[in-house]
Amino acid sequence: MANHTNSGNPNVDLAYRRKKNAEEMKFQVISFILMIFLTIVAFFAVGYEGFSHWFSVPFILLLATVQVAFQLYYFMHMSHKGHEFPALFLYSGVFVAFLTVLAFVTIVWV
Amino acid sequence: MSTLARKKGVGAVIWDYLTTVDHKKIAILYLIAGGIFFLLGGLEALVIRIQLAVPNNDFISAGFYNEVLTMHGTTMIFLAAMPLVFAMMNAVVPIQIGARDVAFPFLNALGFWLFFFGGVFLNLSWFLGGAPDAGWTSYASLSLASPTHGIDFYVLGLQISGLGTLIGGINFLVTIINMRAPGMTYMRMPMFTWATFVTSALILFAFPPLTVGLIFMMMDRLFGGNFFDPALGGNTIIWEHLFWIFGHPEVYILVLPAFGIFSEIFATFSRKRLFGYSSMVFATVLIGFLGFMVWAHHMFTVGLGPIANAIFAVATMAIAVPTGVKIFNWLFTMWGGNIRFTTPMMYAVAFIPSFVIGGVTGVMNATAAADYQYHDSYFVVAHFHYVIVGGVVFALLAGAHYWWPKMFGKMLDEKLGKVTFWLFFIGFHLTFFIQHFLGLMGMPRRVFTFLPGQGFETGNLISTVGAFFMAAATVVLLANVVITTVKGKRVGADPWGDGRTLEWAVSSPAPEYNFAQIPLVRGLDAYWIEKMEGKKGLTPAEPLGDIHMPNPSFLPFVISLGLFIAALGFLYNQDYAWGKWVGIVGLLVTLGAMFLRSVIDDHGFHIHKEEIMEAEKKGAGA
């Protein structure tokens, strides 16, 4: 049975691959639509007079974070196996950058 | 194309080293360049100690003292300790993980030449109007007011050499993640490889803040910016934060490889597996992680407020825990071991109490309230010399003796090695132990002289005498190197007889392809396992075949030279009209060399199977 081979070649199990690819395509389309939607929301948040800057700026930053996550996990395949090290170093970098920014907004005498 | 065992003229050898991309030769380059800067930094230290030997001394002027003091710190950290650490990493790590080279041999050479030109640039300041004089930390409030070009040399030189370090760090990360031999899992990696891995990650995250700080400073000093000038809306504290966000991890960048070197030495000369290997790995990673959350302990007296001070004080003290784990693991490695007191082992044994003293005073400094007393006194000077000399320099000397046969194929003389050790050990404690008390008695650091009758005379004189002991040790070491090079006998693969890790399975020095066949690693201390099963060599993981090698290249030298010229030009941007143009020409040289690198297809070459078999018959290889 071709489907039960242990050759390690991912192309062997075609039926499974096809299902996987279709699934992935679905996720990518969904996240693409969501990203466009979030961008429209961001424009709206800035354009609408009713929101103060104290709401719209953090709100847009939040949307940006979500978009980055979509980008990394659905389009750059960070959810797949074998991306543990990039993930580790990415998060470490984010952590160090966060600490730096935190220090600059809290303890520089201004 | 193969250059196995061929006699060459002097010019050919120099050209070989200028263009080499072989990690073993780059290690030697790092060792020589780092060694020269170490001697330079040591001479500066001697000048400092002579000036402070007696009160009211006028051996050098106050202004020159500031320059010497600044260059001593900067040289020792950036141009001596870091490249010497890189020398050890380059010499050992690829072989330890069973690889034929680092992941990016070209970048490896580029990293070295950037460091080298950065260092030369920094030291050019001595001849071009005065060296930097605002301390190695170069706090903005002081350095922006420095009238000479010294600080500009500091800013530009460190940018160039920092680029080299960053490139080196990334190279080792990729090498260790991707190039391990079959069976070399993470938890089978030798401790020095682990230390290199964590160190490289620290370099990756710590050097960008420094680069940002240096660019801000460059803008302020050379291009009319005002990031740090409060009168123009800047903030001088930003420099201190950026510097220490880099500066504290930098301490761990230096000391973690030192821990790695000692871990290898303890295991080898106790003839025992390293005690608590997995806890050692964990402690190394934890120290690396915590190293990023403590930088503000250098700034307790700046006035960050009690909450920030308390957080950073507690975080700093937390580092003592994983460090303590390591200390006990080393002690337990020796316990019950069959110990041989070779020169490297003597450094290792001496390192433990020396470093513990440095660690204890570190916890004292971490106590924020007490730090208001210690701050800017000789107590701090004593503390950081105990960790950096007692930790890093001891490790570099130990590692140099330990791996010398692997790098050069000849053993350093053990008798002279022990003389070096005792002179250095005694000199080190003589110099720095007394400084704790000088600090507690109120002697401020960075002063160029002191008055008689304040109780500082004896302590300073003792300290100066100690410095000369260390100088004598260095002279003996140099003599040892010369004698060994001239008269030393060639040694085999495992000259210490107790080698545990893969580097002792290949000939000394290793052939340019390291392993004729990539080995199969069957556990921690891979070579020891094979020896214990009565085997002569390693178990191969692949059939003997042609080996693909990278071509040597002169481009790393040119790229770095271009940046050197550019820095020189931009330094004189405000003084002379030609400055800008020289700067642009320099950048064009760099970009042109990078362009050539991109467009020229370089597929490397193959060492053929027959050549390898012939070389192996002559005794090279594994």
Describe the structure.
- The complex is a heterodimer of chains A (110) and B (622).
- Chain A has three helices and no strands.
- Chain A has 110 residues and is an all-alpha fold.
- Chain A folds into two domains: 78 residues; 31 residues.
- The mean pLDDT of chain A is 83.
- By secondary structure, chain B is mainly alpha-helical.
- Chain B has two domains: 560 residues, Up-down Bundle (Cytochrome C Oxidase, Chain A), CATH 1.20.210.10; 45 residues.
- Helices cover 66% and strands 1% of the residues of chain B.
- Chain B contains 20 helices and two strands.
- In chain B, helix 6 packs antiparallel against helix 7, helix 8 packs parallel to helix 11 and helix 18 packs antiparallel against helix 19.
- Chain B is globular.
- The N terminus of chain B is likely disordered.
Would you identify the regions of chain B where 5 or more consecutive residues have pLDDT less than 50?
1-5
- What Rg of chain A, in angstroms, do the CA atoms define? 21 Å
The profile of the biggest β sheet of chain B is:
2 strands, antiparallel
Biggest interface and which pair forms it? A-B, 15 and 18 residues
Number of helices of chain A: 3
Q: How many domains in all of chain A?
A: 2
Helix share of residues of chain A? over 70%
Features:
heterodimer; A: 110 residues; 2 domains; B: 622 residues; mainly alpha; two-stranded antiparallel ribbon
